[in-house]
TrEMBL record:
The chain crosses the membrane at residues 12-33, 45-67, 87-111. Keywords: Membrane, Transmembrane, Transmembrane helix. This is Uncharacterized protein.
Amino acid sequence: MRCKEYSKIYVVNFAVLFVTFFGCLLSLIGMLVGCFRPLRRAGGITYGLLLFCGFAMLVLNVTWALVTWNAFTNLGESAWYPYPDLAIGWFLHLYGSLTMLISARVFGWLVMPLVRAFDPEEEDLQQRKDKLRMMNFWNRDREQQQCMMQQQQLPVQVQGMHPGQYGAYGNNAYEYPMAQEGGANIYGAPMGPGLAPMEAPRV
């Protein structure tokens, strides 16, 4: 009789220990998924894991209390045995399971509307639009940089000389050679040493 009752207590102890450890591990996985993935995509997974773990630990907590109560009651019928009270560990386990269950329910109340309203196809389309918009922005920025570089290279160098550099035709590198050698200027007037420019005809 005693061995049978102690065997039941032993089994339920290990069951509670295993489910509690497994529930904490699944809760951690659910929280990591909720942190590293958008809630509109992974909120349902996080909510389901937290709710399942809290409910499972609560059920095992109550089951442990009922099984141990039954075992000690049966032991008291066949022999004198002091009936132990529930210790603080059971209350801490109950508090943890209720906290997880209530927190999961509040999380689902806040997040599940976003999950239900989420459309994967619309999300993919929006991501493609954003990618095209960013590509257009980069191309526009690249074109602006190219235009700025071209503007910085102006004015065009004449005969390999920089503006203001002393050359074969005087200080001004942009003077026409014909004007220095006695030819005509840009208006057709003869230019050269000792030749005055032609006056414009009077009307």
